[in-house]
Predict the 3D structure of the following.
Amino acid sequence: IRYDRLEAKKGPVGQECEGNALVPQYFREVTLTPAAAKRVGKPTEVLAHNGWVMGWAATRDFAEPCWECVYLKRHLMAWGDCVKLRFGQKPEDSPFIWEWMTRYAVSMAKIFHAIRLDNAHSTPLHVSQYILARVRQANPHCWIFAELFTGDHNIDLLYEKTLGINALVREAAQTNHPRDLSGHLTNLG
């Protein structure tokens, strides 16, 4: 609440903010396609939104079961336009999602010379490593661009080395002054 209402300056909740909830929506109910409904045995499914958690280590998956209970304690700054995929530790933990996302990434690598990993820090490192290995089998010269906000230069390097990232995508909006932007350009190349 402090972040949404005070730090982000969204203001108070009231009649002038109709439809603007006190806290962001964490879950969304979706109607499944007939094939998906048949596979899971019900017509709808509840999905958890993705987002970020202040002070959370980028290499830890906040959707995995843990004592911190990120969703229950409402520590997540939820993004309303995407959902969190729960991959597990290996393809056998969630075969459909591993296969679907791998097939999608490989198909993009066959069409394009480069792919972009949006919020690369939100996908578990071992999952990205698995999928990118298949991408490189399909297109060994595919460039990998990654949007990566870990807040730690050493963690950025870990991702770059582990995944073979060719270039990072940064937001200029994360600077408060022109000298900050020039500092980013100097430090990051």
